[in-house]
């Protein structure tokens, strides 16, 4: 168990595929290195952006093991446990993911209990998962699929006070909700990571720990800089970086995650294919032109970022 996870950019790591949609393991290694080299505080693999619902359980576990091995302790790694079975099955799934060596196993809030099931049922199942996996750290991800379940403030407080949770990915898109949740986490191991780039600085000023969202997948260096310098860099510069990251995230929103892979193939040294299982539509020159142009524009601005700052030291 770790005392706490580091603040900063936590990409929801994409899963590279070959043309036949098998996992491209060499590209997994390259993407892992690239995320770390560009300032990521940690890596969230086996998330929705990584097409977790379109991977088999064996692939999810193999992917987590591969990323853990490649990071070699350089940054922490977390991964989702993807099971919507009964409490015993969910506990087994979480234990299998923990055995890959990840630093925390992330539970999907909307898989723990069904849409019609109560918070009491949800809490009981989570407690069973904790009890059957002693010594394992956990996280919560408010994944929008199969439906979005936002745990109540009382449940957030319970998770924080349990001492077993270290990561919370908020998708409420409400600064007031973020502030209330951060308040009940204070003094515990649980940290809040915002999924929404447009409210990142507001959440950081409220005591949030960073960002875990699309923007960190394509510009971890700029998200990392923003997380570190939101309160000591010139205010206009901070606002400009956040606004540009917000636009960048919107640019890749269509046909995501293939669009993010296409973007990276033109904005970085990565040669990741724009191939996905989740949304298998191809990206041709017409759909790709805005991605290429924005990638070039973003790079031309010479914005401060974690990679450039580190290189200047």
From TrEMBL:
<dbReference type="InterPro" id="IPR013785">
    <property type="entry name" value="Aldolase_TIM"/>
</dbReference>
<protein>
    <submittedName>
        <fullName>4-hydroxy-tetrahydrodipicolinate synthase</fullName>
        <ecNumber>4.3.3.7</ecNumber>
    </submittedName>
</protein>
<dbReference type="GO" id="GO:0008840">
    <property type="term" value="F:4-hydroxy-tetrahydrodipicolinate synthase activity"/>
</dbReference>
<keyword id="KW-0456">Lyase</keyword>
<comment type="similarity">
    <text>Belongs to the DapA family.</text>
</comment>
<dbReference type="InterPro" id="IPR002220">
    <property type="entry name" value="DapA-like"/>
</dbReference>
<feature type="active site" description="Schiff-base intermediate with substrate">
    <location>
        <position position="169"/>
    </location>
</feature>
<feature type="active site" description="Proton donor/acceptor">
    <location>
        <position position="141"/>
    </location>
</feature>
<dbReference type="Pfam" id="PF00701">
    <property type="entry name" value="DHDPS"/>
</dbReference>
């Amino acid at each position: 168990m770790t005392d706490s996870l580091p603040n900063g950019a936590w990409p929801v790591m994409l899963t590279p595929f070959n043309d036949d949609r098998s996992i491209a393991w060499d590209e997994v290694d390259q993407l892992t290195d690239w995320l770390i080299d560009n300032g990521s505080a940690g890596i969230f693999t086996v998330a929705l952006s990584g097409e977790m619902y379109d991977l088999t359980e064996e692939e999810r576990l193999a992917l987590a093991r591969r990323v853990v091995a490649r990071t070699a302790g350089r940054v922490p790694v977390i991964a989702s446990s993807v099971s919507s079975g009964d409490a015993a099955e969910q506990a087994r799934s979480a234990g299998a993911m923990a055995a890959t060596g990840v630093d925390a196993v992330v539970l999907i809030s909307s898989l723990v209990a069904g849409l019609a099931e109560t918070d009491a049922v949800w809490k009981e199942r989570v407690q069973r998962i904790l009890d059957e996996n002693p010594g394992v750290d956990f996280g919560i991800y408010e994944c929008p699929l199969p439906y979005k379940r936002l745990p109540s403030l009382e449940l957030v407080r319970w998770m924080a006070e349990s001492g077993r949770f270290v990561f919370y990915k908020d998708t409420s898109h409400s600064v007031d909700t973020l502030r209330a949740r951060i308040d009940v986490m204070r003094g515990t191991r649980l940290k809040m990571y915002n999924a929404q780039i447009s409210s990142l600085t507001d959440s950081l000023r409220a005591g949030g720990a960073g960002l875990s969202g699309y923007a960190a997948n394509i510009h971890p260096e700029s998200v990392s800089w923003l997380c570190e310098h939101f309160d000591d860099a010139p205010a206009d510069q901070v606002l400009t970086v956040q606004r540009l990251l917000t636009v960048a995230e919107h640019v890749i929103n269509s046909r995501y995650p293939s669009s993010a892979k296409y973007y990276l193939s033109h904005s970085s040294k990565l040669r990741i294919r724009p191939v996905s299982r989740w949304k298998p539509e191809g990206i041709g020159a017409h759909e790709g032109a805005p991605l290429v142009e924005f990638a070039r524009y973003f790079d031309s601005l010479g914005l401060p970022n974690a990679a450039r700052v580190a290189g200047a030291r």
